[in-house]
Each structure stands twice: as structure tokens, then as C-alpha cells.
Amino acid sequence: MLRYFHGFQFRESYDWLFKDLDVDKAVKAGITQPGRYLILEFDFSGPTYSHKHEECAEFLAWEINLGLSNFKYDYAEYLGDSFASATSTFSEKDPAGNLRHLINAVDLALQDIHDRGEKDHPLWDVRGIYLLADEYDACANDYIDPHEPLSWSDVEPVRTLKAFWTNVKVGEKSFYGIRNVYITGVTPLLLSGLTSGANHQENISFNAEISALCGLTRSDVLEALRLIDKNEEEVQKHIRTLEKYANGYHFCQRRSVELVFNTQTALLYLQAFKDGKEPEIMDPVNSEVPEPYLWICARAPAAVNDMQCALQRDEHGSYQKIPYKEVLDGFTPHQLNTQATGEGDISVWRSLMVYMGGLTFDSNDPSSFFKIPNLIAAKRFRSAILKRLSLYDTIGDAVHTLARTGNPMSALAGYCQLMRHHDKIEDAFLKTEEHHRGIFQTMILKNRSIDAMGEYQVKKVTTSAGFVDLLITNNQNLYTLIEFKNIQIPCLKLDGEQNIDKAEQLEAMNLTKILGLKFKDDKYRTGTIRNWIDGRGSKPGSVCKQLQSYIAGPTVQKEIVDKNFRAFVVVIVGSRQILVREMDRNGNWVGNFQLAK
């Protein structure tokens, strides 16, 4: 839209395009003026980029030269013979140099018009060049890797872009050169490396005034649906689907504004609906969080722990809020690499995911919290983490086994691998049983074949209320109870000073040694792990008796009639081992302890 408002060649179309719109009011009030620039436009989205640096650099050079050629086609007849002569010999292999020659030629042509006092010339009131760069990060998505910062900083595509932006900055010094630059699809990660030093940069990503322009509003989508189908029941069905999968973006940091839909996802859905096809909403093409950035995050333990917490839902079914202090305007691959396995502050990672659409500002308290916007973003987070560890297919098979047999051992083994890989920083070693259960439920059990309910309320054998940590059912006869317990590393008698050293000891232990580990400085648990589970410790209460009280209570006994009932105690030990023991419908142990691995 900027092209049509500011472009000199669209002056004659102004009334048809903008009359009576809000911007027209600003024009009539003298706040802004249309058609005062020559538009120099580049589209960096292109096809999928080649992973060969030379081929990618060639494509970028071709795209830059194409933008310059289009500019000459649009304006050469107005800029005159001197401009045509100065820009007639462009070099295919030097797009940055071609840009410099074009800017100089435009500057000289417009200066000559004013020096001659040609007030009746069509370009008399043109101020210079307005540069538009769309989908600027498309190339970087294929190359940038904060875990290997040098892999991004010195490849041919980057050198091509750096040379391009150097000449953009030089062009800003000319009186009739580049007067404004508008870039879309760019993160501060790229700005800091390529456009650093540009004058008067302004990040308008989270301004309240333009937040509704960053997506489609609910009224936009509803109006489109009603144009396609007059059946209001069908309209409401489709809007609910889109709200679940594509809505939830809040592009204002300082105050609450209207949530918007992802434009690309919503338009693809609407087009399919209009064409009478089944809309593809589960995994839309070229939408939401770019895949390369998900893989980058999936390699950073600090980011993964954050993502796993964000994926959990509260009692109302909303994704968990993630507190934050600031959103950074600029950061580098080196900073991301430093925070990948570090402690404490991970503001760089959180800022990256906000700019990439993986997180958004919480609509109720945008200045304090982030959250995942919708189900598509959540699914892509989960998939990236599991695929990074080659667990995606394995977990799918494990959950199908659980649905068929009621046995969670394979699923727990997958969670054990996930936990060992990512729980490497101090905060991770302090996870509660609620954290572990929530991550297991979110990361492992998300499957249409089962229904996993956390904190399932039952009446115990004493008829008082109790909450089973996890109930797993399906629409057939599956009924599996899991009671989660967690032992943090500081609560165990292990050698060493650092938690990571103790974790390595735990990972190497066999079943017998783990069951024989003793508690240390624990207010509620004494003796060994085995004695605590079986209720033979010196302090009251046991894991065994707690699960027995749930099973023997009226709620469970009524619900398990004619069901394939199974119950398990699952004990997370120091984020490195998972103890499992089964109990039958009569409250008796079935077999011995096992390690999920």
C-alpha cells in the first residue's frame, strides 16, 4: 500500500484508491502528501534459496538488479536522457555498484530540474527515492545459526547484502537520493549486522497505531466468511477454527489492543473455503514461525526450557504466560550463542521468538508477559524440539502403544531422553513434579488417539477429595492412572558441588543404586527412595498408599468397570532417571521397579 500512496506514478489513481479512507483525512488536513517519491522496490522472498552460497548470492544479485530495472522502466521517461545514459551499462555481478550509479543518476536528474526552474515538470515536487524491501529475512533463514556465529557472518549472500546496504546508507546523503527506507520481514538480529549505522532507524513493530495492520481483525475475517457463505452456522464454525489455529497475535507492548489473525494462514484458509476445498489449517505452508528459527531454538537448552513452559496450559485452557522484562531492539548471533546454555537472563532468545511470531504479548498484560499465540505455533514448537532429538516418530509410536495397551513405558522413555538433553541449567534442576507432568503431557501425549487430563479430581477411599496427577483415556476402554513424583537433585545425597556433576552420576546409576539413594535435608522425606515409595520411612505418608487411596475410592472403582485399567507410580529422579512401578485395580504392586529408558 505504501507503493501506491507514495509512488509518483499513482497520483492519477489517488481518489480511486484512497478517497474517504483515514489516510485521506490526513492528506486533506495537510499532514501528509501522496505521490511525492520514486519507488525503488525489492522482494527478497523469492523461491526456496539454494544451500550453495554462490547460487544464493547470484539470486540476490539478480533480485536487486531486477528491482533496479523495474525502477528504470517506471521512471526513465520522466528523468530524461542523462539518467538513461548513466544507468545504461549495469553490471550483472555488481548489484551494489549498480544501485550507487542509479541513486547518483536520480539525484543529478532531479537537481537539474530544479536548477532549470522547471516548475511545470512532473517531477518538480518529487522528494527523492522511497526504498521498499519486502521479506528481507528470507535469505538469512537458510543460513543464520547462532550456535555457529561465523557461519553467518562471512558467506557470499551476506557479503552481497552488506554491500547493498552500504550503498543504501551512502544514498541517504544525496539531497534527492534515498529519503525513506521501509523494510518488512526483518529481525533486530539481521538489522544489527547488515543495516547498522543507518540514520534515523525506527522500529515500529509494536506501535499501537499500526498493530491492526499486522494481521487480519476478527471483523475482517467474519466479513470475508459471510461473503463466501450466507449460512451463519457455517460462518461461526469456521471462525472458531481460525481462532484456535491462526488468531492470538497481539502486536502492541504497552497496552491491550485487538488480537489479530495471521494474514497468510487466514487468507489461504478463506481461499480454500471459497474454492469448495477442505482448508488446510493443521500445517499451513509458509506461515507462522520460520522452520530454521525453530531448529535454532531447539538446540538451545535455555530456550527449550522456556518453550516447554510456554506450551503448558492453565486451568482455563490458555497457554502459560512467560514473564519478561524487556524486548531488545538489537542483538547478535554471538549474544544468542552465549545465552543458549547460560543461566538467568534469556531476553535475547525471547526477543527473537517475539519478532519471529513464536511468542506474542499477552493481551491482558502485554508489558509484563509473553505467551504462545495459537495452536499452529504450539505444534511447531513441539515438533521442532522432538525432531531435533529424532524423537518425533518414536514418540508417535509410543503414544499409539499407550493407547492400545495402557502402558506408558515407551512414552516415559522418550520423555527421559528429552529431559536429559535439555535439563542442563540450574533452573531446570529445580523443576517441580507439576512442571514434569505438564511437559510430559504437552510434549509427549499430544495425540488425537488419547485424552490426557491433569489433576483429575476423584474421591479417595476415605471419601475425601484427591487429585490424580494424570488420567489417560480414549473413546474405547483405555483407563490409565499415573501418579507423578519428583525428587530434585539438591534433595539427594550425591557427591560433588555442582548439580550438573551430580546429574552425570545419576545418569550412570543402575536401578538398585537409584532405589538405595538417600534423601538429604528434606522436610518430608527420609531414608531411601525405595522406602519412601513403599511407606517404610520414618515420616508418615507414602507414594504407595496415596495411589492405593485413589484406586480404592468410589470414583475410580466406578469408572474402571469393563475398562482396561492400569495404574503407575512415576518418580522423576534428578531430571536424569525415571522410576516406574505398576499397581493393579486392587491396590497391589505388579512386578518390580523399572527404569524408563
UniProtKB/TrEMBL annotation:
<feature type="domain" description="AAA-ATPase-like">
    <location>
        <begin position="1"/>
        <end position="195"/>
    </location>
</feature>
<dbReference type="InterPro" id="IPR018631">
    <property type="entry name" value="AAA-ATPase-like_dom"/>
</dbReference>
<protein>
    <recommendedName>
        <fullName>AAA-ATPase-like domain-containing protein</fullName>
    </recommendedName>
</protein>
<dbReference type="Pfam" id="PF09820">
    <property type="entry name" value="AAA-ATPase_like"/>
</dbReference>
